[in-house]
Design brief:
By secondary structure, the chain is mainly alpha-helical. It has a domain at about 40-70 and about 85-170. Helix content is about 20%, strand content about 5%. The chain contains four helices and four strands; from the N terminus they run H-H-E-E-H-H-E-E. It has helices at about 10-30, 65-70, 125-130, 130-140, and strands at about 110, 115-120, 145-150, 155. The strands form two sheets. A two-stranded antiparallel ribbon has the order 1-2. A hairpin with a 5-residue loop joins strand 1 and strand 2 (about 115-120). Helix 3 crosses helix 4 (about 130-140).
Amino acid sequence: MKRNRSRRGFVPGVAALVLCLIAGVASAAPPQDKGKAAKPHAANAPGKKFAVPTPPFTPGIFPCTECHKEMKPNPTRRELKDEHTNIVLNHAQGQRWCLDCHDISNRDKLRLVSGEKIGFEESFRLCGQCHGDKYRDWKVGVHGKRTGMWNGEKQYLLCVHCHNPHDPQYKPIAPMPPPARPETIK
């Protein structure tokens, strides 16, 4: 049995299907002005709000301005000898220092590379500047912990709920013993 083909070798039904798909994609795409850049997707917009719990501050250290309000800011990279001596910066060693993330003029804020000041509850934006793949995965619930409804409100844990921002590498965890077999339980 011979198929009905047009002169160019296309099966008419396939050609019609391809045209319908092209028309559907073209009608679904928003119109673009040639002189304007496309608007970012809402999930990537800086103003997008994520429900997060309060960051896990060490008791007695926040707000930072309680101690820093009377201190003259010193931007010089140095070893801290008077305060914060318990902090070991093991995060891009030799490349980072306190004021790369903490704002020099308002210690209750973090500072993005752009100079924008953000609160500690938006620290995911700071971390996402260097760890873009993890930030992308965090926003969609693949990395980190997210609770709530699959199609409703969600609460996201911040990076600092699982990672120490000054030393983010996970520490080894001793393995648990295997579960007991039911027949061995008395």
